[in-house]
Amino acid sequence: MSAPHQIATDAPDPKAARLTFSLIGAAVVALSAIFGVVVGLVALLALLGTPLFAIMGGVSELAWLSDPDPSQQFLRRLAPEVFGARFAGSPILTTIPLFTFVGYTMAESKTPERLVRAATSWVGWLPGGLAIVCVLASAVFTLFTGGSGVTIIAVGGLLLPALRQRGYSEKFSLGLVTTGGSLGLLLPYALPLLVYAMVTGLDFQLVNKAVLAPGALVLALFVIYAGYIGVKEKIPRTPFDVKEALSATWAFKWELGVFVLLVVSIKTNMTDIDEAAGLVALYTLGIECFVYKDLSIKKDLVRIAKGSMALAGAVILILAMANALTFYVVDKHIPERLIEAMLKLGLDKTWQFLIVMNVFLLVLGMIMDGFSAILVAIPLILPFAAHFGLGPFHVAIMFVLNLELAFSCPPLGLNLFIASFRFNRPVVSLYKLAMPFVGLLALALLIITYIPRISNTLVLDDIQEWRNRAEKENRTPREAWKLECVQHDNSNPLPCSEADKIKYPNGRMPDPAVVAAPDAGGGTSDEDEMDAIISGKKEAGAPSAPKPSGEMTEEELDALISGKGTPGAAKAPPPAPKRDLTEEELDDLISGKGKKDGG
């Protein structure tokens, strides 16, 4: 009886299949009619499951080959962008496979059991205690592994039977383990945040700091809802036991060391992010193989490394092709054209743009994996964000929270398909179960979208520190502007606030004011009047304004220029009339007996 039931459960639903293919066909026809046959063909290949890196790389090459400029129609556009310093030189490329290896290693060991035991011992006594454990354990484990799928399989598979045994309804239990897998994406050092920081050039340490408040908000909403369900369904609580709490925490101490090692090594500037990831990977391998001995170097290491590197390689390949496609989008100024079209339609308010952006990111997150969605959306969204003056941390949090929502949102959420496979349920049956949790994520997104202060409240001191440093060094606070609003050009940041725009015109230090020396006479100085005559602004001999006493007349000025007079000298009496010398005076002058005195 069990085998036929199993086959019937796994059989595809004809109605769901027809509906899916109808939606795919309608989407392809609409895109072909609006953007052309090539775009429709690419959309069809994507919806039918063609590898995403091939789609992105192919679209990039097709775009360049169809460029109107013949000099741009060649196939060597991919390599320079993929192997350029901005992409290939990023430390995040090393960090991704190392963190993926850490996640796979922990998932294959007994870390999920130790994590659940520790969380249960501390919060199990609260209303809805075990459900709260599921929320926290899923978030932490997703942070470890970087992917919601692994969390659903490992932690969800462990906690679903426990939730049902404790008395929680199947509807709530399945919905919780299905959506809980994406909660860790909005915590410090989550891989989507690192990828976002890599692509946008944002300081990843500040991103990890800024995300604490929004991440706590999302977890708080889930914890409150779990407590409400615990009270509503009258779930018995577990008494708090100090001995058990300390014992469970002590058993989990080596995994806690992963956080300690990662944070301390980065915060003390002993290592960069990629070097810290290498230390964490080596540490994790050591504790799982030699301390806990859950894994064997000979039996398990090769298998774990192979699986984790396959996933990491796929992610990096997608990143590379998306980077090449991004270059085309930026080079052809596609975002600027979209902004112009959007403004022509009347969408010129910030709140209108935020609605459009969230809907776009939600749809993109449902049809792509998280990394690809970030890479495709960033070059399209950031110019809009710069136009409307949004903050970089605000945009980053909205990006990642949209991914969390998209992963659990019907009909194409990734978590729904993974949970369907893991718990052997038709994916359509999970739609209704996930909706209360999707509503919580949507509420969190709404709050964070329209209260941007939540996203940057923890980095305001860092921004002010950059301002103080710039003021001390008598220069523009360029670093602060980069953290306050998305910039059109990060190499030439501009002020964000109206006060800064007035204080720093065009993003530059104001010119020092030229203060004229006071004139004792209260009128135009002699030098100014002379300059006016020489430059032609005043003709010599032209009548001048009444001159205060002590200033030269034009006649005196002419005498000064010709060297016949001295400023300030007393006016000499007119010369005496000339007369002829007598013969006696002439003889005395010749003989040297007399001197000519003009008298």
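The record above closes out task 2.4. Task 2.5 opens with a second protein, given below.
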Amino acid sequence: MSWLAKPLSALLIIFLPTAALAADARDPVEAVNGLDVADGLECRLFSSEPQISNITNIDIDHLGRVWAAEVKNYRHRHNSRPEGDRILVLEDTNQDGVADKQTVFYQGRDIDSLHGICVLGNRVIVSAGDKVVSFYDDTNDLQSDRKEVMFSGIAGTQHDHGIHAFLFGPDGKLYFNFGNSGKSLKDKDGKTIVDAAGNPATDDRKPYQEGMVFRCDLDGSNLETIGWNFRNNWEVTVDSLGTLWQSDNDDDGNKGVRINFVMEYGNYGYKDELTGAGWQAERENIESEIPRRHWHLNDPGVVPNLILTGQGSPTGICVYEGNLLPKVFHNQLIHCDAGPNVCRAYVATKDAAGYTAEIVNVLFGKRDDWFRPSDVCVAPDGSLFVADWYDPGVGGHNQQDVDRGRIFRLAPVGSQYQVPVYDFNNPVGQLEALASPALSVRYLAFQAIQKSGEAAVPALKKFAAENAARNPRLQARALWALGKLPNQGASAVQEALQSDNPDIRIVGIRLARELRLDVASLASLAKDAAPEVRRELALSLRHSRSVDAPAIWAELATQHDGKDRWYLEALGIGADKQWDAYLAAYLAKVNGQWDTVAGRDIVWRSRAKQTPALLAQIITADTTTAAEQPRYLRAIDFLSGPEKEAALQAILK
């Protein structure tokens, strides 16, 4: 995350204050006055120095307490606090929106430079150094009683391109990531983990490289690698539909900071897929604009970006699924970018099988360019908390101020910080908690539902039906919880697939994928009217052993329109390791009439043994212009074998 990692020679000047404020303007009393706040919201200072400093990450528990990762021991200041960095718990006991009680949950050198904190009941998952460790408060006194190593062997210690925060997903699983200094993921005993696809969780291009995104069970088992080839993907988030979103930072100064819709099992293009070469290396069909070139966006096999945001230092991210904030923010991404001193919403709308987005500022340091938002989190009442690293510069690991830091609360004017209380021991309370905007509350609800077992089924089904029209996000949460109960998976999938809402049909496909159901049970969706539904079905074909898979893929491929890169890449992901059978099924289905705009697209993306000869036909065709040829020549770079050599000879002749 280059808010701490930018070379001084390149960017420190850019992110230093252009006009120093008077000394008294840095006083916490003036903190809010330096910020512009979105219409309809009020910003209040929840906590600041001397109570806290240098907050890298926050989470909010089901009681509304803010858990903060406080970092002083970073890089050239790594011994500035000999006792070690701290995990703080901040409470507002009188509901005035200001923290009036602070507890040190844990302090030690083993969590120096911690970059992630996730609170799940009495368990606190901490990402620090080369490990992920679960701390447990068994006595409910806000003190760590024991700790267990979950993952180890992660590179990037004292480097912010290493391990980052965990979060709880609607499917009952954990999601997390590391940047391109993380290198590998090992178990508690130091053994390299082999993921669900049978691949080592390492960056050695077999097949993964650079930064990665992961999903696993609560105990760390059943690890999946669900995205790779990022530079410094600081934090990943997931919404109630199971859609993943993430920011990523460019090589500093290239105006290529990006937000990604993380389409599962995709390559995101920071380095060349096969050679590992950087974006500046010469290549055929190279992109003309540096921000696009930076992510290899002209290469087949690279998932496109949601939005490029220019120059920056992206940090924390979440999805706002509450209703306290103005409607423009409902169900949208909220993201911090420490470089340009801003917390933004990316208001996303569907675009064919993908998305487009527009930027709406939430909190902007217009008059205080020390404002360095490091994280954002949704509280149980639906308010928003923003952590502020607060520093004069961003770059070169140049932590200049170790004594200051702030946390702000955003809510409508006059809104008190009142945290709902839930009874997790009965179905009504469980479902009320499942509807919470806070992940910490939904975790406890999900666990209580799973513990209730079959007794929870009637209430869950009723809750899902009642919210089908008024709040599909709540319907989705109920279906996820239902689908993970014993003997309820298949029926939950079918209920979702029968919905007239494509988002819920997507939930059904994703649930089926996690339950490892035969893809043949989803075959009817191959002709779904919604391209985003067909996109998800294509992803589910990846490594499928079903005899029906090639025919389903072919049906999906015939519906590609030649314009939708998201859909095309989903087809490519789905055909991984089975290109020969899948492409042959497609060519048979179109009776050999593949030479259309859409068909050329599919050939360009394909990696079958037939592909080189088909590319040669395209390159040498009279209908192919000189301007189009480099695109298809570049596709040949991703192929190998005697078929490639024969195709190249045919082109030369």
